[in-house]
Specification:
The chain is mostly helical. It is built from 14 helices and two strands, in the order E-E-H-H-H-H-H-H-H-H-H-H-H-H-H-H. Helix 2 packs across helix 7, helix 2 runs antiparallel to helix 14 and helix 11 packs antiparallel against helix 12. The longest helix is centred in the middle third of the chain and has 35 residues. Keywords: Membrane, Repeat, Transmembrane, Transport.
């Protein structure tokens, strides 16, 4: 719906008072200015919630979104690792419905959430650190002399969001990586249960592969997660700012959900091949199996393209899209909602 506001000329009377004249109605500039100031103050209050509140909001947002999309996340992982040990004929027969039916018939419906406990154990600290680090990296970047004078520039803000998001993603991934590796291995188990739980998986990996085995695939992870989070945050912040500028009265929840979903699609499309390589590196040597890839990161890319074709780099992208649209949307929506609630609670104390 289009809204047209016709503003007349400001006239200053003898008493120093200002009035607003309009042919089709009157609109108070002071009132508009006051509303803008209130909106800015509200956003500022939300961004200035305490450390504990930020960590809680980020952790709960990440855990909730991952739990809601756990079935699709497991399907994505199973598709991503198919090319490691399966032959070409088996891979051609695979599809989402067939794999989902196999999980239900062979493992039961609850198997869709296999590894979800460790997912939550990973996502609570990961998302907490991710959102918290992002907010603080933004503040640090904004005080850089060259950027401080250009805070209103859209290109500068986009650059800040991109860099802050990338640094936040690298920080969060490095801090919680062993749990991410355990989550992948538990989710990739089908009929043979080599790991019985989080503690058993950690002990077994350290025993069979050494402590450094807990960080297998970290290089590919950092190469992927930095750009992924950078794209996600920068696209989200840019879309949200533009949306709120054009339609300032729309629901914050709706805006966060829509912009979060679009940012998830953008980041997943750009970095999915790296995520696929990361998953395969994480599963190297599971259960005493022989290594599949004996080269570095670029050698693995060449091997996948040679044996599975270029499309092999995007194996599992469809369930990833199905997962990321609601998943990232729910994550940003929950984070923004909790920030507002916690900000209101803090202001009321």
């Amino acid at each position: 719906m289009q809204t047209e506001a016709r503003v007349g000329v400001v006239v200053e009377g003898g008493g120093g008072q200002r009035g607003l004249s309009s042919g089709h109605g009157s609109v108070s500039i002071d009132k508009l200015s006051q509303q803008q100031q209130q909106q800015q103050q509200k956003l500022q209050n939300q961004s200035q919630i305490g450390t504990v509140s930020q960590l809680i909001a980020g952790g709960v947002a990440g855990a909730l979104s991952k739990t809601c999309t756990a079935p699709l996340a497991r399907l994505t992982i199973l598709f991503q690792v198919q090319g490691m040990h399966n032959d070409a004929a088996t891979m051609r027969k695979a599809n989402i419905w067939h794999e989902a039916s196999r999980i239900v018939s062979e493992e039961g419906f609850r198997a869709f959430w296999k590894g979800n406990l460790v997912t939550i154990a990973h996502r609570l600290p990961y998302s907490s650190v991710n959102f918290y680090a992002y907010e603080h990296y933004k503040k640090l970047l904004h005080v850089i002399p060259g950027l401080q004078s250009r805070r209103e520039s859209m290109s500068t803000n986009l650059c800040v969001h991109f860099v802050a998001g990338g640094l936040a993603g690298i920080t969060a991934a490095s801090t919680t990586y062993p749990l991410d590796l355990v989550r992948t291995r538990l989710a990739a188990q089908t009929n043979v249960m080599y790991y019985r739980g989080i503690g058993h998986a950690l002990q077994t990996i350290c025993r069979d592969e050494g402590v450094l085995g807990l960080y297998k695939g970290l290089g590919a992870t950092l190469l992927g997660v930095g750009p992924s989070i950078a794209i996600s945050f920068s696209v989200y912040e840019t879309l949200r700012s533009y949306w709120q500028l054009q339609r300032p009265h729309d629901s914050t929840v709706l805006v966060s959900l829509a912009c979060g979903s679009l940012s998830g699609i953008a980041s997943s499309t750009a970095t999915f091949p790296l995520d696929l390589v990361r998953r395969r590196k994480q599963l190297e040597g599971v259960g005493g199996r022989a290594r599949v890839y004996t080269t570095g990161l670029f050698g693995i890319f060449k091997h996948i393209i040679r044996t599975e074709g270029f499309c092999g780099l995007y194996r599992g992208i469809l369930p990833e899209y199905y997962k990321v649209v609601p998943g990232v949307g729910i994550c940003f929506m929950t984070y923004e909602t909790l920030k507002m609630l916690l900000a209101d609670m803090n202001s009321g104390l």
